[in-house]
């Protein structure tokens, strides 16, 4: 019997022959190939080390068949200089898949990403900038019945816990969604998860090496005129992933609602998570995700094992040129101890058709053992289109921090971006801090970007960038400081 992995390898080999121009039977001549290439070369003057990070994504489709591959190269001039802060192979086939889709049926073998509902029961995805990848390797199938759809999956994934310890995950699940009425949809999921740890240096007892649980969830969404409401509840039962010696009964509840009142739009979220953390879970944070650098660095990271809270915000237009947005969020543990709160507001405006801008501010506190770190941040931006054809963008941010140790410092960011035309962008970003914990207090990075064609862009940057926390979708990554030269290439074909 031919193994599924052999079938997948054969499918990928066929895709390679297609893309290299090998002749195919007449019935299979119509082939659509598409892909992208991203490459980045870094040379760090301080570390005297360089990195080349390249990624090629390639898909080929003919009739009902689709095959794809993602190749990554990560070349280090010195193993001691690794800005990704992860053990990444020098070169690898990162993802590969073969897919069959016809009418209401879709079946995919190989690597896949999947989200059930709001991510309470299951979410596997990739955030490239943050080096976060929870791809599963196996089978993903879905069938659309019109009024309802069914998705089933089974996959495995490996996670490196230390140089000698590896965790092998197995995930199986099924999701059924239905829209019996135009104003409502319903969904249900069942997910079985397990893992096994393997340590090359230590023999682990089963109580520490093995884990399994089951997650069941239900969801309902309603659209009632100007009001929409969504609710999902998930319960898990299984072993304690920390010790394996006792069972846990965890739960996750998420509610959200939007109301369009004409003169205002209101939005709210409520969360309640207890004993629910897992590599393949990524529910809503109910914390505002800001576009501003300083506010994003101050983003609170949720605790899926012990947290409940809310996010509420509203937007009010004032005429056709001004809109106001404001809101607040709060998080507490199950004992009602305050863990985080934030208040924020934004004023967005336009001046005719040539200028747009905004002002924003936030104040937040994060509590730890009865003490808190407080951030007060303000920001402003302005984009102007001149009659001569070029554009100019200016951003300014400033913030003060009182950290948990009682130390106070200030941070500043200013950037100027110029679009002279001809597909050229010139930008300068200056950052400064009064923190005594930093090895330096100022950074300046300048970049020139050129769009060669609609599908090809090259960027060259030189200078210094401050490190710090970067967050997206509830996942955060601490980026190291950089001083040197960076060359980037983005191409689509």
Describe this structure in words.
With 493 residues, the protein is mainly beta. Among the domains are: 1-94, no CATH class; 321-493, Porin (Beta Barrel). It has three helices and 30 strands. The strands form four sheets. It has a 24-stranded antiparallel barrel. Strands 6-7 form a two-stranded antiparallel sheet. A two-stranded antiparallel ribbon has the order 8-9. A hairpin with a 3-residue loop joins strand 18 and strand 19 (322-332). The longest helix is centred in the N-terminal third of the chain and has 16 residues, at 4-19. The model is unreliable at 1-27 (pLDDT under 50).
Question: What are the main properties of this structure?
Answer:
single chain, 493 residues, mainly beta, Porin, 24-stranded antiparallel barrel, two-stranded antiparallel ribbon, 3 helices, 30 strands
């Amino acid at each position: 019997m031919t193994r599924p992995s052999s079938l997948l390898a054969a499918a990928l080999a066929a895709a390679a022959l297609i893309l290299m121009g090998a002749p195919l039977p007449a019935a299979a001549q119509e082939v659509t190939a598409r892909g992208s290439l991203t490459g980045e070369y870094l040379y760090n003057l301080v570390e005297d080390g360089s990195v080349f990070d390249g990624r090629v994504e390639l898909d080929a489709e003919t009739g009902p068949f689709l095959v794809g591959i993602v190749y990554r190269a990560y070349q280090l001039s010195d193993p001691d200089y690794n800005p990704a802060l992860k053990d990444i192979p020098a070169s690898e086939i990162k993802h590969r898949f073969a897919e069959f889709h016809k009418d209401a049926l879709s079946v995919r073998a190989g690597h896949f990403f999947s989200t059930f509902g709001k991510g309470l029961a299951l979410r596997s995805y990739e955030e490239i900038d943050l080096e976060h990848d929870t791809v599963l390797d196996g089978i993903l199938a879905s069938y659309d019945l019109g009024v309802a759809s069914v998705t089933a999956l089974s996959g495995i994934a490996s996670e490196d816990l230390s140089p000698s310890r590896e965790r092998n995950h197995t995930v199986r699940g099924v999701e059924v969604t239905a829209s019996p009425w135009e104003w409502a949809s319903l969904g249900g999921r069942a997910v079985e998860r397990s893992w096994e740890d393997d340590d090359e240096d230590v023999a682990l007892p089963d109580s520490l090496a093995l884990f399994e649980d089951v997650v069941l969830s239900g969801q309902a969404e309603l659209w009632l005129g100007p009001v929409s409401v969504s609710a999902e509840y998930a319960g898990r039962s299984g072993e304690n992933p920390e010790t394996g010696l006792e069972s846990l009964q965890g739960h996750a509840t998420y509610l959200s609602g939007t109301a369009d009142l004409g003169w205002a739009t209101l939005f709210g979220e409520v969360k309640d998570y207890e004993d629910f953390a897992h590599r393949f879970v990524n529910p809503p944070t109910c914390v505002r995700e800001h576009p501003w650098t300083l506010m994003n660095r101050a983003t609170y990271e949720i605790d899926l094992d012990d947290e409940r809270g809310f996010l509420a915000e509203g937007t009010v237009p004032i005429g056709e040129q001004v809109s106001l947005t404001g809101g607040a969020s709060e998080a507490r543990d199950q004992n009602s101890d305050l863990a985080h709160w934030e208040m924020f507001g934004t004023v967005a405006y336009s001046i005719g058709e040539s200028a747009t801008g905004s002002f924003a501010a936030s104040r937040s506190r994060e509590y730890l053992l009865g003490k808190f770190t407080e951030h007060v941040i303000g920001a402003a931006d302005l984009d102007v289109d001149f009659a001569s054809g070029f554009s100019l963008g200016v951003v300014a941010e400033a913030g003060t921090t009182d950290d948990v140790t009682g130390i106070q410092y200030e941070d500043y960011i200013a950037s100027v971006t110029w679009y002279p035309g001809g597909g050229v962008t010139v930008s300068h970003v200056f950052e400064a801090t009064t923190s005594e914990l930093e090895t330096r207090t100022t950074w300046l990075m300048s970049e020139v970007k050129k769009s060669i064609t609609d599908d090809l862009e090259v960027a060259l940057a030189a200078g210094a960038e401050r490190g710090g926390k970067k967050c997206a979708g509830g996942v955060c990554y601490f980026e190291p400081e950089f001083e040197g030269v960076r060359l980037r290439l983005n191409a689509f074909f």
